[in-house]
Amino acid sequence: MSKNVKQGSADREPATATVRTGSGGIGRAIRLLDLVVSEGPLRFAELLELSAIPKGTLHRLLNELADERLIQFDERSHTWSAAYRILEMANRIWTRSDIRVLAQDQLMALKALSGETVQIAILADTHVVVIDHVESTRSVRHSITVGSRMPVYCTGTGKVLLAWCDDEQQRDIISRISFSRFTPNTITDKTALLKELSTVSQRGFAIDAEERFLGSHCIAAPVVDSTGRAIAGLSITAPAFRISEEELISWGPELIAAAAEISRRLAPRTGETNGASH
């Protein structure tokens, strides 16, 4: 979870200082990529000021990084941000990451409880990306793969990741969402989403009521870091014909407890956790 687990400035300064000593193209490109990933979205003028890279060189490096799908330009906001290839590369690391190892038995326990597909996902700008899952063995089931990418506004994990992030980040993400209606139940505007996030925050879990796929609904809870901000969303997804929304909600206490246990296990890496209070 290196993107979401914030390290102290003391931990970052040596690496930054090392990069800045290099005047070569690779050093500048790495420094620029790190800046976009850690501070983005950023406008060109902001990048020019923060990077201290000459204007012409900055233009060239931005275009080269965009050609490699490492960063992307948003035409609406005129800002640069990390692109999906960063997540593709990070996903290879997830196979050895702490959170997958520490969460595995909790995913298995929730699957045993529900008999349904259980997954854990992280925030990826205006989307979520699945980093691990345990699939139901039933003939009709929700099937998903590691690396699957879905919008934040119409998924249970997306909602908890939005509800448990800081206000500035939440506003920024929501301002850049391009809403689409996938089903009659999909939230398609900012006002409705903010109202839903308030409800999610108050009750401690989120429901995807057939908002992404008709016939499939889920319940999700946040895995949080030492500041109480979500670093992952843990969810159970089931076919609506087999599991009613009431039964889905009945799994809430066990789901919240499992997410809290994963948060507790991550505490030595992120600091003592405050739980999922918000």
UniProtKB/TrEMBL annotation:
GO function terms (MF aspect): DNA binding; DNA-binding transcription factor activity
Region (Disordered): 1-20
InterPro entries reported in the protein's UniProt record: GAF-like_dom_sf, HTH_MetabolicPath_Reg, Tscrpt_reg_IclR_C, Tscrpt_reg_IclR_N, WH-like_DNA-bd_sf, WH_DNA-bd_sf
UniProt keyword annotations, A-Z: DNA-binding, Transcription, Transcription regulation
SMART domains from the UniProt entry: HTH_ICLR
Source domain of life: Bacteria
Single GO biological process annotation from the record: negative regulation of DNA-templated transcription
UniProt keyword GTP-binding present: no
One Pfam family cited in the UniProt record for this chain: HTH_IclR
Residues of the IclR-ED domain: 85-268
Domain HTH iclR-type residue range list: 23-84
Name under which the protein is recorded: Transcriptional regulator KdgR
Organism in which the protein naturally occurs: Granulosicoccus antarcticus IMCC3135
Primary gene name: kdgR_8
